[in-house]
Structure formats: structure tokens, C-alpha cells
Amino acid sequence: MENKIIEKRMQKFLIIISAVFFILVTRLAYIQLLQNDKFSTLAQENRIRLITIKAPRGEVFDRNGVKLVGNQPVYTVSLVNLGRNDTGGVVKNLAAVLGMDPREIEQKIEQQKRLYEPVQIAARVPLELVTKIEEQRLELPGVVIDIEPMREYPNGKLLAHVMGYVRQINEEQLEINRNKGYKPGDSFGQTGLEHTYEEELRGQDGGRQVEVDSMARPVRDLGVKQPVPGNKLVLNVDYKVQKAAEEALARSAQEALEQGYGEAGAGVAVAINVRTGGVLAMASYPEYDPVKLSGILTQKEYNELFNSPSKPMLNRALMAYPPGSTFKMIVAMAGLESDIVDPQEAISDPGYFFWGKTYKDWKAGGHGKVDLIRAIKVSCNTYFYQLGLRTGINRIAQIAREFGLGMKTGIDLPWEETGIVPGPDTKLQQRLKYLNVDARNRVEAIIQKYRELLANTTAEDERKVLLKKRAEELRAVEWELDWHDYDTIISSIGQGDNRYTPLQLANYAAAVANGGTLYKPYLVQKIIGPGGKVLKTNAPVELGRADVSLKTLALVREGMREATLPPDGTAYGLFAGLPPVAAKTGTAEVPGHDNHALIVAFAPFDDPEIAVAVIMEHAGHGGTAAGPVAEDMLAAYFGLPLEGKERVVTPE
Predict the structure, then answer these.
(1) Which of 110, 462, 542, 567 could form a disulfide with 457 if both were Cys (CB 3.0 to 4.6 A apart)?
(2) Can you give the residue ranges of every domain in the chain?
(3) How far, in Å, CA of 115 to CA of 236, rounded?
(4) How do residues 135-156 score in pLDDT, each as one tens digit?
(5) What's the mean pLDDT in 163-183?
(6) Euclidean distance between CA atoms 554 and 549, whole angstroms
(7) Can you tell me the distance from the alpha carbon of 382 to that of 140, in angstroms, rounded to the nearest whole number?
(8) pTM of the prediction?
(9) In angstroms, rounded to a whole number, what is the distance separating the alpha carbons of residues 377 and 585?
(10) Are the C-beta atoms of 176 and 169 separated by less than 8 Å?
(11) What's the CATH architecture for 49-235?
(12) For residue range 273-311, what is the model confidence (pLDDT) as tens digits?
């Protein structure tokens, strides 16, 4: 009986064994015969890795061949998604070594859709972190350390705001540029010329087929396609002038702080070739280190760059500022071109002007008898209060636009501000944003009504009547929505709604110097391919010519020249030892804060070559804080030393 039971159990056991064996054989046959191609491909992909060889970005040189930006080999860390279930553990371990947020690494991996292709996690990785990764190799399967070319800056932070910085392409940029061959981990110009000329600078990546072991470590090369470097850029920038500008800005900012201007510490300087529009220098202070932005940022470093009150990431050359007294030449030209003023006509300046209220001159007691040339020389507010009021804001605004103020220059840099030219429409648009919803709706209805009425009439008398009625209706909503005489008065000395970029101010000074031609400022002179062939040369582009007579321009230039001469020119004491310079200082009021210091200048006076504009934020007077920066830039341009020169203190 027992033997039969055992025999039955053995039969069942054999049946089970046979069934399991049959299933295994069937599965093996299915894999070997029907899915052979699939698993062979996966095995091959696991064994053979296509490694991208990054192309060096194009180098950048100044007008005289000085290298401004190059490349150097650095360590990078990438992660190959091996399709393992423990990827989360690898990410966590790698994040701990690199000091990164694991979520940041996970986001990079998610962008990479294909297995076995490296995703760059970090660049410019220090040697000590590379060593740590090698020590923990068994805990970091799929982590690859490579050497790639990355940006090198032979002159440190010099030209940082103009060049911008390079960093891994972000998700939004990747989506926009995916059809151009970009992939996760690629470098991408984020700001400045690196951004504008990204396509010219990026080059063409090469590739290397590598056989790897189970730990994703290279065993041998199977073939290489060499990368093609990016194109070189040759700039109009003069290294000597740029260096002088950056050093002078830093020094002047420090001196202003020491003199008690507690909000000082920032400034900007621009130099332009008056005959072409080529930008010879563009410096913004404080600067930043582009090397840090291409690597791993600590929270402290991030805060210093992006959350600092000094805002080092801003290119201040493209930001709009009140122009102060540097605007007075515009008012002078508007008056002369409208036959409002005779250049020999003199007024008596008691130190103030009364028009409903008292408007003070910067000099207590006034300047005595003042004509147009002397008014520019000593920067007489009283003279320009009256001249502006007689000329009218519309004519002043027209001349401002003739010289490119309040309009983007079109320079080959991103994120240029437009600026603001004062006038009734400008004031209305500026004030609208401060109204409540009900008042704003009423104002917009008034604007629309009179827009339609004005469009249907061409008679000047009718237009004047309509504009007067519109002004009355706007004043009924709020007094400050209309333009008033006091707006014209303060605008005439560069206050009120005046806002222009330092680049616009430099270009305006250049147009005054060259006889009225407004050029488009440009940084890149030419683009050169990897083989040395010139692919493109940027020629000067005329934006237009100011509708101002040569006689008027000559008078304004004479006033600017007088400003640098004794005994009381506001720029007197500056520019000694240089070719003759013409200049105009400015002190722009900033409500609730210390004044901005400004200067515009050009040289040589008789045959101009270079124009400059300098603004020192919250640093006091133009001649004192901004003047020395312009002086150093001109000295560098003309190859003249300034060591040991005593700095002057001027009141305007």
C-alpha cells in the first residue's frame, strides 16, 4: 500500500518537473529564436557606448588680437542610466559627493530618454571630488568622469557682462533648440555675446565609440570622429580701454564710499568709436566671475550673484538712468534749431528761477551773466529752466529722439532697455500704472475717444482744441495725468521722466562729436571660421542723421570744450595731459537717495575719435566721481599714463 502511494507521488513530482522543464525550454527557445535580435541589440548597447566629444567653443579676441576668452580642459561628471532599479541610490550617493540637490540630478536624468547615454550632471568638478567619486566607484555604477573643454578667462572677470556666461542648457532652452541638435548636458550661452552668438560659437561635437565593462568603465576605443571647434569672434573692444574702465569704476566706487556716500558701490562706463559705432569698452561694476556660473554653485555663491543688493549680474550699460545735466545739450540744440534763442543772448542768473514756485540753481548765488556757451560750461540750471520752458517739451523730445535717446540702439546684446523721453504721452503712460482700476478705465476711455477724434482731423487749430479738451478731462480724473510747465522745467535739466541707458548717452555724445550721424553700436567686428577664413565682417551701420545744423552742433561742441577749461568749467581739472577733450558733467537726483554722478565726453576735440559715457550710482557729483573714470579710459585709448595724477573735486 505504501509503495503505491510513494509511486503516485513520484509520478506527480515527475509531471511537475517535466512541466517546469518544458516551460524553461519553451522560454529559452522563444528568447533564442524569436527575440534574438532584440537582446543582441541590448547587449551590444550595453557593451558599446557612444561617447560625445564636446567641441571647444569659439575663442574671443579684442581688436588688437588680445585673447579675451578661450578654453581649458576640465573634469565633468556624467551619469549613464543603466536601467537598474537602484538608480535612486546612485543619485543620492552622487548628490552627497557633489553637494547637489538629488532632485536636480533626477531632473537631468528625466530629460534623457535613452538608456546607456551619459547625462552631464556637473562641470568644472574639482580634483578632490573626482577623487572621492573614484574611491566610491562600487557605490556609483554608471557614473562617468570625463575631461571636456570649457570656458577659460585669461583676464579674470574682465568683460564679464559683455561676454556673458555659459552653462548647461536648461529645459526651456532645450525644448526651443532641440531641432538644432542640442541634448541634455550641452553647454549654452546664457547671457551676453555667448547668448547672441551661440550658434556661431558652439562648434560641432565629435564622438567616440567605446567598449565598456559591467561597471560602465571604458575598456577600449572602437573609433573616433573629431569635433569641429566653434568660430572665433574678433571684437571692436580695446583691451586697454576696457581694463582701464573696469579698474577705474572699482576705484571710484570705493572712493565714493569712503567719502560718505553710503549707497555707492556700482557704476558703468561705455566707450564708442565716433566714426563707426564700434564699442571700444563696456564695463559694469560690480562684476561677477563667469567661471563660477559654469560649475556647481553653493547656496552662498548663488545668493552673492543673484540676491545681492549690489546686483552684480546686471549689465548696467543697458539699463536706463536719469541723465541729469548731460541732457542740457539736447535742450540747447532744440532752442537753437527752433530759433528760440540767440547764442549770444545772455540772462542774469541769481541762483534760482521763479515760475509758480522757486527752482534753484545748483550754485547758490548763481553764475551772473550767462549765454548759451557759458551755460553749458558751468551747467547753469537757471538758464536751461528758462530755455526749456520757451522751447517746449515737444521740440525737446523731438531732438532727443533725433540723437537716439529713448530708443534701443540694436546692439548685438540681449535685454537692452528702451529708456524714456519726457512728454505728455510718456507721463500719462507712466502715471497710469499707479491708478486704481476705476480711474484707469476712465482714463483709457478718454484716450480712446480722443485718439479717434484726432485721427479724423488734419487741421492744426482743431487738433489744438481737441488736445486742450483731452487735457481738461484727464485733469478732472487726476491733476498729474496732464503735462504742466513744471514738468518741462525739471525735464530741461535731465530730471523728471528722462531715462536713458549709458550706451544711448555714449552714442548721443558720439553723434554730437561726428557732426550728427547716429551709428548702430556693435561689439563683434568679424567672425572667423576654424580654418582661419573670415566668414563675416560687420560694417558700420548708420541709423540716421540728426536733423540739426552743423552750426548748432559746433556751438554745442564749443560749450562742451569750455566745460573742461578754467576757471569754472564743471570738468576743469580733468583730462590734463590728454589731447583736447570736450565734456559735460551731470548730477542726477534720485528721490530718497544720494545723487548719481555722470559725464559724457569725446576726444580729440578737433578731430573726434572716441566718445565715452560714465555713470556712478549714488556717488555724488559727475566731475568728482564719474570724471576720473572717463579720464582713465581716454588716457588708455591714447596710450598716455595717469599715475600720480591728483584727482579733482567738482560741484556738478
Answers:
(1) 462
(2) 49-235, 239-301+308-326+501-637, 327-336+345-468+483-491
(3) 46
(4) 888 888 878 888 888 899 999 9
(5) 90
(6) 9
(7) 75
(8) 0.86
(9) 9
(10) no
(11) Alpha-Beta Complex (3.90)
(12) 999 999 999 999 999 999 888 877 778 888 888 999 999
